[in-house]
Amino acid sequence: MNIDLPPIGEQLELVFEQATKAAISQLKANLKAPRLPAQTEVDESQYPRTHLVRESDGWEPPHPDIVGAYFRHFQAHFPEYGTDAKLAALLGLSSDRRVRAFKDGSKAAPYGVWRRFLVLTGRAPQEVIPVLAFMA
């Protein structure tokens, strides 16, 4: 039996094209996410907003009060992530202890984890990175 397959380069291009179309579809769906009220646990005007900007624009880790308020607000609206373990899994963390450490300030939330949370909650746009060339 012989199965004719296109060259690997063509296969990779097809996979890339399909993944790009799926990403575009997801980005469009993201625009239709529900609008929820802002958190009211802490007065955010009392804290710097550097936790909301990109790393290259002067990002600084959020204050633990902000982390706790944002996380509890999110968990109140999404009971499926109501435990620190479930929130940790959503954020790509291996342990709920890290979530608790971010909340209590014993460990600063790293940029990648925090940015993912901001994107998930519509506080920051997803970054789309340009492809400069296909270099197989």
Walkthrough of the structure:
By secondary structure, the protein is mostly helical. It has a domain of 73 residues: 434 Repressor (Amino-terminal Domain) (Orthogonal Bundle). It contains five helices and no strands. It is elongated and about 65 Å long.
Question: TL;DR?
Answer:
With 136 residues, the chain is mainly α. It has five helices and no strands.
Please give the CATH architecture of the domain at 48-120. Answer: Orthogonal Bundle
Strand count: 0
Strand content: under 5%
What is the name of the CATH class of the domain at 48-120? Mainly Alpha
User: Segments where pLDDT lies below 50 for 5+ residues?
Assistant: none
**Total count of helical runs of at least 4 residues:** 5
Q: Over all CA atoms, what is the radius of gyration?
A: 19 Å
Q: Which fold name is given in CATH as the topology of the domain at 48-120?
A: 434 Repressor (Amino-terminal Domain)
Average of per-residue pLDDT values: 95
Structural class, from helix and strand content?
Answer: mainly alpha
User: What string gives the helices and strands in order?
Assistant: HHHHH
Percentage of residues assigned to helices: 40-55%
Biggest β-sheet strands, sense, barrel: none
- Shape summary: elongated
Beginning-to-end CA distance, first to last residue: 29 Å
